[in-house]
Amino acid sequence: MRKLDTRTIVVASHNAGKIREIADLIGPFGFSAKSAAELKFEEPDETGTTFEENAAIKALASAKASGLPALSDDSGLVIDALGGAPGVYTANWAETADGTRDFAMAMQKVETALEEKSATTPEQRSARFVSVLCLAWPDGHTEFFRGEVEGFVAWPPRGTAGFGYDPIFQPEGYDTTFGEMSAEEKHGWKPGDVQALSHRARAFKIFVETCLNA
User: Fold this and answer.
1) Rounded Cα distance, 56 and 132, in Å
2) pLDDT, the chain, mean
3) Please, how many CA atoms are within 13 Å of residue 81, restricted to the half-sphere of its CB?
4) Top enzyme class of this protein (predicted)?
5) Tens digits of residue pLDDT in 64-99
6) 95 - beta bridge partners?
C-alpha cells in the first residue's frame, strides 16, 4: 500500500452532494482539496462494469489532469430482489431525457420494480449501499477502499437530508432512513471513533487507516 504523503488532493467528482460528503470526511485531517467540478475538468465516461472500475476511471482522469493525487467515489444501491440493480447504474436510473438527474423519478422506478416482484416486507426488500473509493496518483498507481452498509428499501421516501436514494434506504438497526439523518449521524464516525455507519464513511475509515496512519 502506498501512503499519501501530501494533504493536497483533488476530489474527483462533479456530484455536489458527493463532494460535500467527502469534504466533510476529509476536513478533520487538514486536507486542501478542490473538486474536479471546481477545476472544470471534463467528466470521463464511466464505462466500467464494477464500482472499482468506474472509481478508477474518475480518479485517474483527475490525477493526470491536475498532477496531484485524486480521490474518487463510485457508489450505488444494490437491491437483492432486483438481481443487484441498479448497482453500478444507480445514477443512470435517475437520468432524464434532457441529461439531468431526477432522483425522485429514480426512487419511484425502484419502487415500481419492487412492486412488480411483489416485494413488500423488509426481508424481501433487502439492499445495501456500496461505496468504493479510489485514490490515484498521476503516475497511474491506484489504491481501493470498499465500504458497505446493509438495510432495506423503505417506502414512501422519508427525509430531505443527504442526496440520491437516501430517503428510501433504511440501514439495519435503525428506524430512520439516510434521508432523515444528519451528516454526523449518517457518517457515524470521526477521528478517534471506531464505528462508521454509511458506506462512504466505512470506505473512508479504511482509507484513513491504510494511507494516512503510519
Assistant:
1) 9
2) 90
3) 21
4) hydrolase
5) 999 999 999 999 999 999 999 999 999 999 999 998
6) 101
The reply, when asked if residue 67 is annotated as ligand binding, is no
In this predicted model, which residue has the larger pLDDT, 58 or 3? 58
5, 74, 80, 175: the catalytic one is: 74
pLDDT for residue 6: 82
128 is in an annotated binding site: no
76's grid cell: 450505488
186 annotated to bind ligand = yes
Which amino acid is located at 42 in the chain? E
Kindly state the cell numbers that stand for 201.
464513511
Within 8 A by CB and 6+ apart from 7, the residues are 29, 30, 31, 32
Reported CATH class of domain 8-211: alpha beta
Residue 74 a catalytic site member:
yes
- The H or E element spanning position 74 is strand 70-79
Chain centroid to Cα 139, Å, comes to: 25
Q: Which residue has the cell 466505512?
A: 202
How many distinct helices (H) and strands (E) make up the chain?
5, 6
User: Is 174 within any annotated ligand binding site?
Assistant: no
Packing angle, helices 16-26 and 199-207, rounded to 10: 40
Q: Are strands 126-136 and 142-153 parallel, antiparallel or unpaired?
A: antiparallel
Q: Where are the domains of the chain?
A: 8-211
Burial class (CB in 10 A: 0-12, 13-18, 19+), 164: buried
